[in-house]
Design brief:
Blueprint: E1 3-8, E2 14-15, E3 20-26, E4 34-44, E5 50-56, E6 65-66, E7 70-72, E8 86-93, E9 101-108, E10 112-124, E11 129-135, E12 142-153
Antiparallel strand pairs: 1-7, 1-12, 2-12, 3-8, 3-11, 4-10, 4-12, 5-9, 5-11, 6-8
Amino acid sequence: MKCVIVQNSGVNPRIGKGKNGWGGLVNPIKSNVDLYVNAFTITNHSNQPIEAEIWFNAIPPGKSRISNNVTPANTTLSRTSKPEVKIVYAENVEGLPRKGVMAFRRIVPPQSTLASDEDGKFIFPPGGSFIIFLVSPNNQTIQAEVAFGWFEKK
């Protein structure tokens, strides 16, 4: 059984002026692993609250980029496996995610971090995704950060 446990140092989508941003975990269709979301955090660096929507298996808007900010959580292994799951993000995008399900919302207070430990209870097969969609609050540009912990099993 292949089990990769990964922690991300975060991606920093900017939002504001009517544009949204998002970061998420995408399990490629040919990964041959299931994605287990273990934890996520959302940091709000602004002086006003922001709304975060958590989407399951959605197609988010905008041109996404893949983050390289990935490190194994178990550093005792002499050879760590490269994760199959990708951290993707986009900033200053218009529109909302398509398809999928908005599972829940969270309000992130100003100058704070919201942390959620999920213990692997959100499970996505190849082709699935876990997206944190940050909704633009107004005309001010907001700096936020999302980070993830997950593991993979064949």
